[in-house]
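It would be a great kindness if you could assist me with a short task in structural biology. The matter concerns a single protein, recorded as an amino acid sequence and a row of backbone structure tokens. Could you please explain, in whatever detail you think fit, how the structure tokens follow from the sequence? Thank you for your consideration; the sequence and its tokens are set out here:
___
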Amino acid sequence: MKKHHPEIPVRGGNMVDGEAFTFLAKAGADFIEVGVGGSPICISRNQKGIGRGQASAVQDVAATRDAFRARTSAYVPIYSVGGLVLQRCLP
């Protein structure tokens, strides 16, 4: 995408850990979306068993983003999707 249309911003995501952030940042993402399974309406956790608490995902990714910037001088913004709402456990 960036090779043929460098003027178009590219969003990377959805992801929940530092390793995924680094992969997407190195691949050229202009900004990265953090969150899988954090929303009250998301079924990822209940049906697929994937995802992570939103607050821990944001903390981990923000720390990795800051370390990435220190190493490379490249700042890649992140944004959080989903909610920080406590969900009722479903049977």
The CA atoms of residues 36 and 51 lie 5 Å apart.
